[in-house]
Design brief:
Number of helices: 4
Organism: Psychrosphaera algicola
Helix content: over 70%
Largest sheet: none
Order of helices and strands: HHHH
Shape: elongated
Number of strands: 0
Keywords: Membrane, Transmembrane, Transmembrane helix
Distance between the termini: 29 Å
Structural class: mainly alpha
Radius of gyration: 17 Å
Protein name: DUF2798 domain-containing protein
Number of domains: 1
Transmembrane segments: 27-49, 70-93, 105-124
């Protein structure tokens, strides 16, 4: 997970880095916050979203539910991380500039976030669920 967080915060930091700003210190502050605060929040959102999708879309296949969950997780987490990255490491003079930086960060990082999120929901989540089911029956 630290690779995911590090990659996405690095992309978002680079997307809005001013020439006078040092990359490493700007990225490290965003990375630490995302790792310590956003990761636990993401785990909570992941669990709640999974329960909501299963509750409201019971007839969908497991693959459809996992794809929807992956897309929602990517959009939610990338949006939150874009705000955090901009607030912690970038200067903006107006709301318009902040919104522009937000969408710039989101556009650059969302494809990576979607890839990681779909990997999590299509590959890792089913393996964890299978392992937990095996332990419960043993």
């Amino acid at each position: 997970m630290s690779i995911l967080v590090g990659t996405i915060t690095a992309i978002m930091t680079l997307a809005n880095l001013q020439p006078s700003q040092p990359f490493l210190s700007t990225w490290v502050s965003s990375f630490i916050f995302a790792l310590l605060v956003m990761l636990p929040i993401g785990a909570t959102i992941f669990t709640v979203l999974s329960k909501l999708i299963n509750l409201y879309l019971p007839t969908w296949s497991v693959v459809q539910k996992n794809l929807l969950q992956g897309a929602f997780m990517a959009l939610i987490m990338e949006s939150i991380m874009a705000v955090v990255t901009i607030i912690s490491g970038h200067n903006y003079a107006s709301l318009t500039q902040f919104v522009g930086m937000f969408f710039n960060s989101l556009v650059y990082a969302l494809p990576v976030g979607l890839t990681f999120s779909c990997l999590m929901t299509l590959v890792i989540k089913p393996r964890i669920e299978k392992m937990l089911a095996n332990e419960a029956t043993a």
